[in-house]
Design a protein that fits this description.
- The protein is of the alpha/beta class and about 210 residues long.
- The chain contains six helices and six strands.
- Strands 1-4-3-2-5-6 form a six-stranded mixed beta sheet.
- It is globular and about 40 Å long.
- It starts with a strand and ends in a 14-residue tail after the last helix.
- The mean pLDDT is about 95.
- The structure holds magnesium ion (MG).
Length: about 210
Amino acid sequence: MLPGRHGAGIFDELHLPALPCDTEWDGSIAYLDRDGVLNIGSPDYINNVGELKVLTGVPEAVGDLRRAGFRVCVVTNQSPIGRGLWSDERLSMIHDELQSRLLEVDADALLDLILYSPHVPWAGSPFRKPESGMLMAARQLLESSGRIDGFDPEAEFHEARSAMVGDRRSDLKAGKSHGVRVFHTPEHIGLPAVLSRVLDADDEGDDIMSAPV
Ligand SMILES: [Mg+2]
């Protein structure tokens, strides 16, 4: 019962390009929910590439996060796979399309890592939000890639300015459990609504209860 990873196996090594502007990575990760944060969500899931609608300003916002030194990681619940409605391959096509639409607008808008939970809610997976397993897996992958020189696996938990952005309480719960700042964004606006707050290291984030269930 492991999370899925776009474009690779969960245990494969992660090779990342340098951040834009030669920014040195300080360990900060922007964990982003997908639906309602990057693209318009739907109660019936995003089932194919044709249903994917990127929210206004999202490519530039993802680019701004990386230009400010964040690694960007999408963490998304995708129970249709566990329900047998469609496959990992279908999801992969959607994520390829999402990535290319971001890069079309902003060449820095790379999604460094995309993890997804294919599990149904009743499976009790530690990788399905509101649990924080996907965020923990993401941190391990990103740190193993980005800090090969001088990376100390015994180092104290350190995520600098890390933050979780989501439109639902389950996103915020996962972020809180993981120990990072959490930001609620209205689903019809998404990431651009909270970008300046995420970039402000003095902003302590939102309360879990500020987001709808
Ligand atoms: Mg969402």
